[in-house]
Structures are given as structure tokens and as C-alpha cells.
Design goal:
This protein has 22 helices and no strands. It has a single domain, classed as Amino acid/polyamine transporter I (Up-down Bundle). The two termini are about 45 Å apart.
Length: about 525
């Protein structure tokens, strides 16, 4: 394909701004790592202190809107019209939803977060570090960060966009969801600009995942195997292992690569959860602590999800809850667009249940079983787990826990594969979505997000290399993993405005869905004929 022909297939307004932005950031991050980290930290401190209340209120608002839609009369509306048929079986759909979203984060924080809140509970909790009270309270904070609120953030952008794409027959873009406010103008520059903003969110979404997960694999491999190899060299190798399979899977298509990887990974998760329950030290404690924490979560979720430490100001809420909610807000536009491609044939209720509620069940089992097992080990006097956690940090905690278990070699291999497949699935889904956004609509295969034209293949390679490079650059900068985390919060500022607008658009659409549903017109035409 000639370069001129390839260039003609690209949507310049969507592609150029984020592409140039990423290239500039890459140059600065590698050329001036100290200054880059300092600038990121300055922006982070301002964001957390000034906008935390916006992110907490927004997350609760999104959750309420989705519950209203799922369990109201709008829940029976089907994406694509009443006769639309899903492209994927429900199990594969759920596996893709889970593994392309927060799965990599679950691997990174699965042991880290429960152990952190046990060994260093928030000051406002009144619990003593390492005490029985701290052990029982730890998971309620974890569930706040990984259950209803985050998945509500991930799901809300896809509601308005999905309906206007499948039922309203608008173009595949975030702007489609804004049609109730802007009419046909939403298909023009508004779509291009909002898509560009979503692409910029890759910096805080997928690149953050790559930065954290590459460090987790570097630390984990060196700890488990004892290899004497440069961490930076190993990180480069791991990033290449991320990018090559992700691009190949993205090129192969939604129903091939990503479905195979995600379902395989789901079985690995189940194996690790079963291991935590059966071999984790005390199955009764694991079950009792998990069930008790579910009750505590529902008891305090409303108050804690809006708590900002106005007087105590320990920094715990901004460093954990606000950071997480901002992280989800950065990633959710692209995640939401990816979810839209799998919405066909599903009712609104099914869509919300699978994208928001079903993953919460997994999160409860994952963090509950693994976290409770790790806490019980420490309560029983296991000092190695604590020592590794304190010396190697968050990146080493999962594999430090696995090394304490019987058959640790097999379990560690499963852990490495879970991290690897989680990143590849997340990476792959965002590459495919970013590619669709960057192509002119006549170059996009609307039946399958994978596309099949050479332009899409070139674009997937471009975004794969850029995103992987960004993840390594953030890890390489002076701030290391702190810069990785900081980037996600900064990009959340503009995306929050967009996602709030999409939430209000969903409310407007489903108060009068017939006004926007063109599948009803097609049904009427068929009846007349």
C-alpha cells in the first residue's frame, strides 16, 4: 500500500494530536527523566488536592444512573434492535470484559492492597497496625476500590455510545453518545475531538498497566528464579513479550485472538483463587473473612466512597481512593468503546450486569481469597512475606505469597501467565479500539472491531509500539512507578468532563428511547411492506 493511500484512510483530526503528544512525551521522558518526573508530580499534587471531590461524586453518580437503567423499564431495550443476535457466547463475552479491563490491576494489587491495609491501616479507621481488627477491616477498603464504583466508571461511557451506535445508527465514536445534545454535529468535529481525548487517555490507562505489570514481572522473575540480570534489560524483554502477541492477536480479530487469550486467562484466575482457598493456610478463615468483609463493604460503602478527610488530611484517601477513581476515569472512554462492540444483541440490563455487576463477584473472590490467605499467613507469624513486601514493594507481593504455598513452582508459573495474559488482553483491546478511532469511517469494519484493511494493520502496529514505549518510558523516568501512577491522574481531568456528559446523555436517551432508536423505523417499514 502506498503511503499516500494509507494517509488518506486516516482521520487526521483524531490521530495527529494524540500521536504527536505521545511522541513528544516519549522524547521528554527518555531525554529528561528527572524534569519529567518532577513536572508530573507537581500536576499530581494539584489534581488530588483540588479535584478529588469531583471524582468521588462522579463515581457515585455513575453507579446510581446504571442501577436506575438496569432495573428500570429501559433495561429491556436491546442493543441493535429487538431481533439482534449477540456475536459472542455469554461466557466468552464475560471473559473478554473482565480480562481486557482491570485484570492486570487485580494481579498487581491482589496481595499488595489487602496486606497494606492490614499492616498500615488508614489512621481514621482506629485500627492498630497488624491487629486482628485491621485484618477484619482490610478488605472492605479493597472492595471499595475494585467493585461497584470502578466498574460503574468503566461501564457508563458505553451506554449512550452503544445505543446511538447500534440503535441510532451513528458512527463509531464517543461523539455518538453526545448526539442528544448536539444532533448531527456530534458526528463531525465533536466526534473527532472526543476520540482524540480518549486516545490521550491511553497514557494513563494502558501505559500505566504496562509500566506496573512489567515491573511486577521483573521483580517477580528475579525473586522466584534468582536471576542476576539487569532490571532494565529484563523490562525491555518483557515489554517486547507484551507488544508482539498483543499486535498479532489484535490483527487476528476480536473473535479469535482476544477470545482465546481471555478465556484461557479466566481459567488461570479460577485456578489461583482455588489455590488460595484450598492451599492458602486456613480455608475457614479465608471464607469467614471474605464474607464478613462483604457485609462491611455494603455497610460503609456509601459514606466511605464520599469521604475526603476534610480535617484529618492523612493523605490516605487521595493516595488510594481518589487515585483509583481517577485511574478508572482515564481508561474508561476507550474501555467503554471496546465494550460497545460486544453490546449487539444484549439487553441494556444484560449489558450492565455483565460489565458492572458480574466482575464485582470475581473481584470479591480474587481479593477476598488471596488477600485473606496472605493476611492469615502474617497473623500466624510468617515473616518472609512481610519482609519481601517491605523490601521489594508492591511488585513482589503476589509472588512472595505464592512462594509460601505448596507446589509454589506451578503456582508461580500460573501467576506469571496471569499477569502476561492480562496485559496482552488489555493492550490488545485498546490497540483495536484506538485503530478504529483513527481511521475514516469507510475504512472501519463495523461488524468486527478488528478490521481487515492494511491501514488498520499499520495503525495497530503504530499504537502497539507507542503504548509499549510509553509504559517503559514512565517506568524508566526518575519517578519510576510513581510517574506511571501520576500520569493516569493528570489525564483524568479532561476525561471526567466528557464522561459526565455521556452519563447525562444516557439519562436523556432512555427517558425517551423511541426518539433516537432507528431500528424501530426499520421495523415499521418491514410491517408496511
Amino acid at each position: 500500500m502506498k503511503m499516500k493511500q494509507l494517509w488518506s484512510q486516516i482521520n487526521k483530526r483524531t490521530f495527529l494530536a494524540p500521536a504527536i503528544f505521545f511522541i513528544i512525551v516519549l522524547i521528554i521522558a527518555f531525554g529528561f527523566p528527572t524534569q519529567f518526573a518532577d513536572a508530573m508530580n507537581t500536576a499530581l499534587n494539584w489534581s488530588l488536592s483540588s479535584l478529588g471531590w469531583v471524582w468521588l461524586l462522579s463515581a457515585s453518580f455513575f453507579l446510581l444512573v446504571l442501577l436506575w437503567l438496569a432495573f428500570g423499564k429501559a433495561g429491556n431495550i436491546r442493543f441493535g434492535g429487538k431481533d439482534a443476535v449477540p456475536d459472542l457466547p455469554t461466557w466468552k463475552w464475560f471473559c473478554i470484559v473482565l480480562t481486557s479491563g482491570m485484570a492486570a490491576g487485580c494481579c498487581y494489587y491482589g496481595v499488595t492492597e489487602p496486606l497494606s491495609f492490614f499492616l498500615s491501616p488508614p489512621a481514621f479507621s482506629g485500627a492498630e497496625a497488624g491487629s486482628a481488627v485491621a485484618a477484619e477491616q482490610s478488605l472492605r477498603y479493597v472492595f471499595l476500590h475494585w467493585c461497584l464504583h470502578p466498574y460503574a466508571i468503566y461501564t457508563i461511557p458505553s451506554i449512550a455510545v452503544g445505543f446511538m451506535y447500534w440503535n441510532g445508527k451513528r458512527r463509531f465514536s464517543l461523539g455518538a453518545g453526545l448526539y442528544p445534545f448536539f444532533g448531527a454535529k456530534a458526528d463531525g468535529r465533536i466526534s473527532d475531538w472526543t476520540n482524540a481525548l480518549a486516545l490521550a487517555g491511553i497514557m494513563g490507562g494502558c501505559t500505566t498497566v504496562i509500566g506496573l505489570s512489567s515491573d511486577q514481572l521483573v521483580v517477580g522473575l528475579k525473586y522466584v528464579t534468582g536471576w542476576e540480570i539487569s532490571a532494565d534489560v529484563l523490562a525491555v524483554i518483557i515489554c517486547l513479550i507484551f507488544v508482539v502477541p498483543a499486535i498479532l492477536a489484535a490483527v487476528s480479530g476480536l473473535h479469535k485472538g482476544i477470545a482465546l487469550i481471555s478465556t484461557t486467562n479466566m481459567y488461570i484466575y479460577i485456578f489461583i483463587c482455588a489455590t488460595a482457598l484450598l492451599l492458602g493456610g486456613n480455608a475457614k478463615f479465608v471464607i469467614d473473612n471474605t464474607v464478613s468483609s462483604i457485609g462491611q463493604y455494603f455497610q460503609f460503602a456509601v459514606g466511605q466512597s464520599l469521604y475526603l478527610e476534610p480535617a484529618q488530611q492523612t493523605g490516605w484517601v487521595s493516595g488510594w481512593t481518589i487515585f483509583y477513581f481517577a485511574w478508572w476515569l482515564v481508561a474508561c472512554p476507550l474501555v467503554g468503546l471496546f465494550q460497545v462492540k460486544m453490546a449487539k444483541g444484549r439487553t441494556l440490563r444484560e449489558f450492565i450486569l455483565v460489565n458492572m455487576l458480574a466482575p464485582c463477584i470475581f473481584a470479591v473472590a480474587w481479593f477476598g481469597f488471596i488477600g485473606s490467605s496472605a493476611i492469615k499467613m502474617v497473623l500466624d507469624g510468617n515473616t518472609e512475606l512481610v519482609d519481601v513486601f517491605q523490601t521489594l514493594g508492591s511488585s513482589g507481593s503476589l509472588f512472595a505469597w505464592m512462594k509460601q504455598l505448596p507446589f509454589s513452582g506451578v503456582i508461580c508459573i500460573a501467576g506469571f501467565l496471569a499477569v502476561l495474559f492480562s496485559v496482552i488482553t488489555c493492550f490488545e483491546s485498546q490497540i483495536m479500539t484506538a485503530t478504529d478511532l483513527c481511521l475514516n469511517q469507510n475504512e472501519v469494519d463495523t461488524s468486527d472491531i478488528s478490521g481487515n484493511k492494511k491501514a488498520s494493520v499499520v495503525m495497530k502496529i503504530f499504537w502497539g509500539v507507542i503504548v509499549c514505549g510509553m509504559g517503559f518510558a514512565l517506568r524508566y523516568s526518575k519517578g519510576g512507578l510513581n510517574s506511571v501512577k501520576t500520569s493516569s491522574v493528570i489525564i483524568a481531568i479532561p476525561t471526567t468532563v466528557l464522561v459526565i456528559a455521556l452519563a447525562f446523555a444516557a439519562i436523556k436517551i432512555f427517558r425517551n428511547p423511541e426518539k433516537y432508536d432507528k431500528t424501530l423505523e426499520a421495523e415499521e417499514d418491514c410491517k408496511k411492506k
